[in-house]
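Deliverable D5.2: sample structural annotation.
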Amino acid sequence: MVTLSEPSGRVPEIAEHELFAPSFFDDPYPTYAALREHGPLVRLAGTRSYLVIGFDEAYHVLRHHERYSSAGERVIAGERGDAAAPDRVRLVLITDDPPRHTRFRGLVNRAFTPRRVRDLEPFIRGVVERLVDAFPRGGADVDVVGALTVPLPVTVIATLLGIPPAEGDRFKRWSNALIAAQQGAARRAELMAMGLYLMGAVVQRRAEPAEDLLTALAEAEIDGERLQDWEITGFAVLLLVAGNETTTNLIGNMLNVLAGRPALWERLRADRSLVEPFIEETLRYDSPVQTLPRIALVEETLGGVTVSPGTQLHVCYGAANRDPRTFPEPDEFRLDRELSRHLAFGSGIHYCLGAPLARAEARIALEALLDRVTGVSRGAAPAERQRASHIVRGFQHLPLSFRV
């Protein structure tokens, strides 16, 4: 149970070290529920930062980019310096506001349209089938993180970018370093390696164009000017990390839900029309992205709290998606909800570019398993949640037993 202080006349506060205790990574939802009893915003003690845990308040912040900026945390990693340096990984789009965001997003939108995703489905299905068919036989447990949930999205996004999928292990290591809460020399070294690798790939595309997204970005222009190498690298990092982390965690969270609900597995096998509602309810129930920051640009009352310019807001998608004001019985997993408003992929101009691709990969992976196995249960070894970052929620290891 969390402990909140309530200074006179001020919003309740919680210490950051208490919030992000090990138990929080195992299951953050009781913490969110306890915080919500005190209101839709809670201050991180000793800071100008707030957790936005109410659905209406989170939705408001996400929809009003002119009041709440995404550009406050422009550079992830290292100390202050040149954004073009290889140890300075600046994520374009996600840390940009209009008009720059509008122009950048237009460059890559066509790579993730529903039609483009449909065209990719035979390729995705082939990747899924190879991975699932390689599961060990004879009833042996499968750690689906290493066997499926990591290699699938890494292979897909790397292929789109034109980077060898065989580099998947390095991509995952770099992705982990990028989202990690802890700073340090090891993290900077990984980010340096990622920056140098991707910058080298961009230089190669300029010299030797190919039929891939990196080449398209290298040849693209904004206002008559080509993108700089560091900008293209920022695109590549965003797509690599977002395309990896979101889908990896979504598929893992889906299978974790099913491992404890054998009757639900049977329902999905019998009625495939339930697969898409199941994916949407998983996105709400155990959101793969838990929180992202915004910076207030104006003074405004939000959830009864007056926020001033420069205030940092941590928009807690996972908490908002369990707000009982919007989702009755939020801790119950139900397929009969109206789920069009969940915030798992955000909202507004920063709505997740790769949402159609993530949904397609999750659906194809689940359908392949439903075709091949009659049931799933937890493996002998315990599951292990990732604890490197509070931004995402997923598994480091998820051993499962599949019944054929």
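Annotation notes: Confidence is low (pLDDT under 50) at residues 73-84. DSSP finds 16 helices and 17 strands in the chain.
The annotation will be released with the project's public dataset once the embargo ends.
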